[in-house]
Amino acid sequence: MRTNPALVQSVLFPELAKGNGRMLPVIGEQKDIRYHSAPAKSVLNGPEVTGMGYWSVNPYVGCAFGCSYCYARYAHRYAMERAAANEHMDVELARDFAEMPPWLAFERHIFVKENAPQVLRKTLRHGSEKHRALIEGDSIVIGTATDPYQPAERKFRVTRGILEALAEHPDLSVAIITKSPLITRDIDVLSRINRHSRLSIHLTITTIDRELARRVEPRAPTPESRIRALARVREAGIDIGVNCMPVLPGITDNPSQLEELVKRVAAAGATHVYSCALRLQSTARKRYLPWIEQEFPHLAERYRNTYARDHNAGEKYREGLRKFFDRLCRKYGVRGWSYDPTADEDAESDASDMLAQPVQPARFDEQLLLPL
Ligand code: SF4
User: Which end of the chain is more exposed for a tag (fewer CB within 10 A), N or C?
Assistant: First the structure.
């Protein structure tokens, strides 16, 4: 299903989209980051609006982790533009809107939906249309656009409030995507949800190389701390696996490192490892390609050539990656799945055929990666 970016942007930040003439007060500062209160009228964005197959919740707009490949920057830009159009900005926010590159504003001005738990409680009142859809099997995914356990959550606890609201209802299906060990703070409320609903956590780990992680995801928690968090959540009896995505061609796709990653997370109790090669939509590309020029200049031309034609890595590369992860997941006993953005129904049956076949000897090496 395709996502309509304009719709996603408006539902990520509905209060600004409607323009009610209110300013966005600063409610906190942390080093070079400013937090702005941005009350929301709705927090649960439905499949028909976002184009995704589930309901999504994002407590924050903007993210301090600053990953080089982040695709959510466009939503923040939209929020800034709407704030400017509706004269919601104070002098400093207006100055940074004018002068700061949008990719940096995404990391430095975080909008906090402080009232999200109360709004969600009202939305999920028993018997409401949304409540019915959710107990009939629709899923809620928290953190589809920005990390719900980014540093802001330590202070504002919006994600925790949302989880507490969800814990009041049985028979839900809830998933959370994060890179942060801060999720372990909420094991108590996660356990309450887990007792009477389906809950799964998706912890993103793109590399176990600490130095490389620091370059690629400069302000995100270390890979080791994420793996420790994984073990703690699993010990609490909660389903947790790893999203090894995106895999960055030529950067985080070293086969022995990927194998070590799968081995370690499996040993820590991960129930699944999902993977996907880097996709570069237009706003992510605006940040990522100059970053490659600066950090990995030897790869710049390959990236330009590959992603100039398509949002996706080459087909051979994706296929090699998929087989590689499939083999690893079988070897270490975790459930595996690779997202293929171009997959159609036929491809799905190809995948099941492939699972039944012996995997070819690995051709997943630098040579294969060269054409991307
Ligand atoms: S953690 Fe997610 S939302 Fe935050 S910067 Fe990284 S990719 Fe973007």
Answer: N
Query: Residues in the chain, how many?
Result: 372
In 10 A of CB 194, how many CB atoms? 20
Q: How far is the CA of 179 from the centre of ligand 1 (A)?
A: 8
Q: Is 67 in the pocket of ligand 1 (CB under 6 A)?
A: yes
Whose Cα sits closest to atom 7 in ligand 1? 70
Atom of ligand 1 nearest to the CA of 145: 3
What's the pTM? 0.88
Pick the closest to residue 268 from 238, 229, 213, 237 (CA basis).
229
Separation CA 36–CA 38 (nearest Å): 6
pLDDT in tens, the chain (372 residues): 344 444 444 445 554 445 445 678 899 999 999 999 999 989 999 888 777 789 999 999 999 999 999 988 877 888 888 888 877 788 888 898 889 998 999 999 999 999 999 999 999 998 888 899 899 989 999 999 999 999 999 999 999 999 999 999 999 999 999 999 999 999 999 999 999 999 999 999 999 999 999 999 999 999 999 999 999 999 999 999 999 999 999 999 999 999 999 999 999 999 999 999 999 988 788 899 999 999 999 999 999 888 887 899 988 899 999 999 999 999 999 999 888 776 643 333 332 222 223 233 233 333 344 344
CA of residue 70 to ligand 1 center, whole Å: 5
Using only C-alpha atoms, the chain has a radius of gyration, in whole angstroms, of 20
Q: Determine whether the shortest distance from the Cβ of 142 to ligand 1 is under 6 A.
A: no
Ligand 1 centroid from CA 111, angstroms: 14
Ligand 1 centre and the CA of 148: distance in Å? 10
**Residue 198 forms beta bridges with which residues?**
173
65 lines ligand 1 (CB under 6 A): yes
Please tell me the distance from the alpha carbon of residue 171 to that of residue 76, in angstroms, as a whole number.
33
Rounded distance from Cα 146 to ligand 1 centre (Å): 6
